[in-house]
Specification:
Distance between the termini of chain A: 69 Å
Strand content of chain B: under 5%
Strand content of chain A: under 5%
Largest interface: A-B, 45 and 43 residues
Number of strands of chain B: 6
Structural class of chain A: little secondary structure
Number of helices of chain A: 8
Order of helices and strands of chain B: HHEEHHHEEEHEHH
Distance between the termini of chain B: 25 Å
Helix content of chain A: under 10%
Number of helices of chain B: 8
Mean pLDDT of chain B: 82
Oligomer: heterodimer
Helix content of chain B: under 10%
Mean pLDDT of chain A: 82
Strand order of the largest sheet of chain B: 1-2
Radius of gyration of chain A: 22 Å
Number of strands of chain A: 8
Strand order of the largest sheet of chain A: 1-2
């Protein structure tokens, strides 16, 4: 009965949709790239090949009494499911370098030993970031559940920051459906990254089905990817499953873009993810709305007190006062430096945002936008640089189905990263309760890309 | 008396705010020091509140007028971050609210240059007095018209005067690099907008500081008040009385380019660039360049043509805040006779000495062009002997000038009306009780009356 080692794992890719924002192989080894490979993750009698998938326990036949839901790793609870997923999706997983069928590619890494810093381009880290150092080399959380570098896989009985419900057990499969779907009409799974329509344990605001009419001309309303079977209709990406994009440690990743950005949307869209914009209604949902299934208080449409509008102060800086940063507010493309005190009374000042910055792979992630009066769709991950034009007028600005929006991923990775609070830049020195000390931030990263203060 | 009521005088921070340390000037901005994007920073909120604070602030701030309750977390001795060491300069924030005591018998290096918001603000950082009668600027006040002002201020707090983000760019059109004072104080009214000069060609027209990003290298930490709390006083160490050697250890406040006491002949490049003019954005009536506070009716023609040296030449209706201080004014200047040849005025600085400067009690004035070093105090010069040519020409730009900070702290202090000495025992409406003032403090440093 004993099969060659490679047979076990080459033919048995991971069955978990740990692919949040490209990091997961949502349509590669899971459904979408071919038939499901059940035996990749499950062992019916805890006897598959007489060895566990992780090959580390030395217990023939898997965990002593078999693993939870027949999984082929030492998994005793739902909170430990990532210890199966990471066998393929971590650089130190037992199956890290196995070429998975049927696409014959390595699983993209969501845990990597390679380093990445904000000085690197976004094509050198998975689009969802890196669970290291939030998870240590044993894949255990290195920090408190609500204070750390990213989502604390393995946490139990925790209420997410901003959340309304305690999550009993938290792991990859709370967000991703491990089996995936290739059916855009699925009511329980979004085809984009196999994100569940209802995140497990999410509470009152659960249930976000992305707009998924991939025959529509409204590409800015769709979640798109150049990799992983999420087709971009006009650029034909459904057949690309990665393998070429690598991090600084030469590990396979699915970054938010590939190759080089030109800063021109028409040429970059074939090489970039794109995140749907929308009105957060029943049809056009953004990634922010998906995230706030668990982080309820952080979305201004759900917690309306996050924004205070004093109509008597229209035209002044006090007209619109935020109590939490918006996660679904329009980002006017032509916001001028003076917008901090002039024109539309926003707090924006993008003096240091430029095409050069986009070309360097440091463009600001926003939702997609439809360039009114033009022929191009802003279906790239970044906010295109505009210059020399007037602001979107009031009508256009309020056309929230079309505008670029700031959203969760503008500032945060989905999985984790090298910086506290899952941020894309080093915002804080520490996140110990109540004693956080901020870091200085230069004019060309982070907050100040949109909110330059004090001049350049 | 009215002009001395300074409860709302400009909230100017000669150093107490860490304007160039954790704010811009000493490095990149530290956004996370003051803002929590989702009111969840670190699972806590630096005194924050459910639902988040306005402008994403990390403190219990529900209205604009409460913003100081964030600032004071670092800048008050009883703030939750009072002793934190802030990057990138690795210094504590200078304290503008301190539990330590200071009196007029102490030198000015034992209190922040802007003074101390205590006792105007109590230990809960709430004003203890009415907005226009008290010990200093009543941060937290709402719907008040500043004394001498022309406009109602809806919300008054630190950020009315200081830009919290600051600037390291001298050309910034919205923020002065000196103490991050806004070019236009918020809700200031008709005389808003004062951009300080930073032209190295005229160093005496530049606001300077030995500490903070204004000089770019020293960010404090060594200077402490009587309670051992970090402050940014108006000078550090010991003064010699010689501007040439004291310049490195002293703040200096820009003199004026104006060649008229009225300010109407100001230079077009740097018009009216003193702290006084900055303060008068809100306290409009107290600046003779904005309000006719001087009666020259007895002097025919322009003042430069007037040859009548008498008290009637210049009748002040409010004390000047932008008038030249002749360095060698003699005691006899207080009395005019037919032989008096110095510029007649009310000055008598008999009790003003180098020893007094060395004791840290020198009289604050604007800088001048007369020395190679620039200091906060009026250097001592022996009085003239009656030779008119020995006096500084008052209408020339770049002379020392009396200004708001000559008498008042910018923030607050232990004495009523924000004064540097205890002039009155109360400031109750219509019942002010005056205190006796010794000959070597306060008014009598310039206007000695009754001899030594």
């Amino acid at each position: 009965m004993k099969r060659p080692f490679y047979n076990i794992f080459v033919a048995v890719p991971i069955a978990i949709g740990l692919s949040f924002l490209s990091a997961g192989d949502s349509s590669a080894i899971h459904k979408g790239a071919g038939n499901l490979v059940c035996g990749g993750c499950h062992t019916m009698h805890n006897s598959q090949g007489n060895i566990r998938l992780d090959a580390s326990g030395g217990v023939a036949g898997g965990a002593g009494a078999g693993s939870f839901i027949l999984l082929r790793a030492q998994v005793n609870t739902r909170a430990e499911i990532h210890k199966l997923c990471l066998q393929c999706h971590a650089t130190n997983g037992a199956q890290a370098t196995i070429s998975q069928t049927p696409q014959n590619v390595q699983a993209p890494k969501v845990y990597s030993s390679a380093s990445w810093a904000y000085t690197d381009a976004f094509n050198k880290i998975g689009a969802g970031g890196n669970f290291s150092p939030e998870l240590n080399a044993s894949w255990d959380a290195s920090t408190a559940a609500t204070l750390g570098y990213g989502h604390s896989l393995g946490a139990t009985a925790v209420t997410p920051p901003g959340g309304d419900a305690a999550i009993t057990e938290f792991s990859c499969t709370n967000c991703h459906d491990p089996h995936g779907t290739s059916d855009t009409g699925s009511t329980s799974i979004n085809i984009f990254r196999n994100l569940r329509v209802s995140a497990t344990g999410a509470g009152a605001n659960s249930g976000v089905k992305f707009y998924s009419d991939y025959t529509s001309a409204n590409l800015h309303l769709l979640h798109l990817s150049y990799v992983g079977g999420v087709s971009i209709p006009d650029t034909v990406h459904s057949t690309y499953f990665g393998g070429t994009e690598k991090d600084n440690g030469n590990n396979v990743i699915w970054p938010v873009y590939r190759n080089t950005m030109t800063a021109t949307v028409s040429s970059d869209k074939a090489n970039s993810n794109s995140y749907a914009t929308g009105d957060e209604g029943a049809t056009y949902m953004t990634m922010s709305r998906w995230c706030v299934q668990c982080h309820d208080n952080w979305h201004e449409d759900i917690t309306t007190t996050n924004k205070v509008v004093d109509s008597l102060k229209f035209g002044t800086d006090d007209y619109r006062t935020w109590r939490r940063h918006p996660v679904s507010a329009q980002v006017p493309r032509w916001a001028a430096a003076g917008c901090a005190s002039g024109c539309h009374k926003s707090a924006l000042d993008r003096t240091n945002y430029s095409n050069t910055l986009i070309q360097a792979g440091k463009g600001l992630p926003v939702t997609a936008g439809y360039q009114l009066g033009a022929t191009l769709y802003g279906i790239v991950y970044y906010l295109p640089f505009e210059y020399g034009g007037a602001m979107e007028n009031q009508g256009q600005f309020l056309d929230i189905d079309s505008a670029h929006k700031v959203f969760c991923l503008s500032c945060h990775f989905a999985h984790g990263g090298p910086y506290y609070d899952n941020l894309r830049w080093p915002h804080l020195e520490s996140v110990d309760t109540g004693t956080q000390i901020g870091n200085p931030i230069t004019d060309t990263i982070g907050c100040q890309l949109c909110h330059l203060r004090g001049g350049g | 008396m009215a002009f001395l009521i300074i409860g709302f005088m400009v909230f100017w921070s000669i150093a107490p705010l860490s304007s160039e340390a954790i704010h811009r000037g000493a490095g990149g901005l530290v956004c996370g020091g003051c803002h929590t994007i989702h009111n969840s920073q670190g699972g806590s909120s630096l005194g924050g509140q459910s639902g988040g604070s306005i402008r994403l602030l990390r403190a219990a701030v529900s209205t604009k007028s409460e913003i100081h309750k964030l600032c004071l977390q670092c800048h008050a001795t009883n703030g939750s971050r009072a002793t934190d060491i802030h990057p990138p300069q690795s210094v504590q924030a200078p304290k503008v609210w301190s539990s330590a005591s200071w009196t007029l018998s102490d030198p000015f290096n034992k209190i922040g240059a802007g003074g101390n918001f205590s006792p105007e603000i109590d230990s809960s950082w709430t004003a203890t007095t009415t907005a226009t009668k008290g010990y200093g600027h009543s941060i937290g006040a709402t719907n008040v018209t500043p004394p001498g002002g022309d406009t109602l201020i809806e919300s008054f707090t630190c950020t009315n005067c200081h830009d919290p983000h600051g600037t390291a760019n001298t050309a910034n059109t919205e923020i002065n690099i000196f103490r991050n004072l806004r070019v236009s104080a918020q809700e200031a009214g008709t005389n808003s907008g004062v951009k300080f000069a930073t032209d190295p060609t005229y160093p005496y027209f530049t606001h300077r500081s030995y500490v903070g990003g204004v000089n770019g290298t020293y960010f404090g930490g060594a200077e402490t008040d009587n309670g051992g709390n970090v402050i940014w006083p108006v000078y550090r160490g010991t003064l010699t009385g010689d501007p040439a050697s004291d310049g490195a250890n002293s703040n200096a406040y820009s003199s004026d380019t104006c060649t008229s006491l009225y300010g109407i002949y100001c230079g077009s490049t740097y018009p009216m660039i003193t702290i006084s003019r900055w303060c008068a954005q809100c306290h409009d009536n107290w600046h003779e360049g904005l309000t006719a506070n001087r009666d020259d009716s007895t002097c025919p023609g322009s003042e430069v043509d007037c040859s009548v040296y008498s008290y009637t030449l210049r009748q002040w209706k409010r004390h000047p805040v932008n008038t030249s201080m002749m360095r060698k004014a003699a005691p006899s200047c207080a009395t005019v006779s037919s032989t008096e040849t110095c510029h007649p005025n009310m000055l008598d600085r008999t009790n003003y000495t180098t020893a007094l400067i060395q004791a840290g009690k020198g009289l604050p004035v604007t800088a001048s062009k007369f020395y190679s070093g620039y200091v906060y105090y009026l250097p001592y010069e022996p009085p003239c002997s009656g030779d008119a040519t020995c006096m500084d020409t008052p209408l020339n730009a770049g002379t020392h000038k009396v200004f708001c900070l000559t008498c008042h702290f910018a923030h607050g202090g232990p004495y009523y009306d924000n004064l540097r000495w205890n002039h009155t025992s109360t400031v109750e409406p219509d019942t002010p009780q005056s205190n006796p003032v010794p000959k070597d403090v306060g008014c009598q440093q310039c206007h000695n009356r009754g001899g030594v």
